[in-house]
């Protein structure tokens, strides 16, 4: 059995990763760079990494929120770009947060230092790291000394979704064949992992936990007096497990739909553990949970 080697350089992984995971846009920063935006992966599904320094960028945040602003307060979900600032005069390890091309704050100093090595290599590959973000904005009462009265002022807080640095990108590249990545959803435990322990432990690596691109396939399992269809999970074409009959029924309708149209079904797989024991979980939406518009956009 072939064991996956340790993670390849981030620049090499990013260059292959972008095949199935990005959209091309104009990165509207002061440099006005043309680049490819890389959507970073995460287990969390919730933006809870705080951004600091928003007070100095309230004007930009007010512009980002625009007509959706509610004086009593509202949450706004957006996409944010993480931009290393090696020329920052206060901190050469700074990471600025941009939304709609406007700088709205920074990662806290200690967090920025943890993420900069990966973010720098992504930037060096000509890509721009992006994450989901949320803004809480409202009007607050404040004392205006010049007017000698209480006035309403705009205020906002920003949070971005960031996982641990080693979990920002998958360990392998996107499938070579035409494929579609399933939407994110709750986890599905992969079964029969003990039979593929060496392979999966190689994916988890020294960090003990890594993302990988996986593909889902229809497999026929022979029983004593009958057969049944199950969803088989593969990484780089090699089987690493299967789903239970119940969970197979949750995803196989999409697998068949895409296969009939010449597309493989890709998904995000999180592998945790070591050479003694591993766990593998898919992060995918069930067939009945996927918005019908997704099928038009996916093909």
UniProtKB/TrEMBL annotation:
Residues 73-130 form the HIRAN domain. It comes from the Bacteria. Keywords: Hydrolase, Metal-binding. This is HIRAN domain-containing protein.
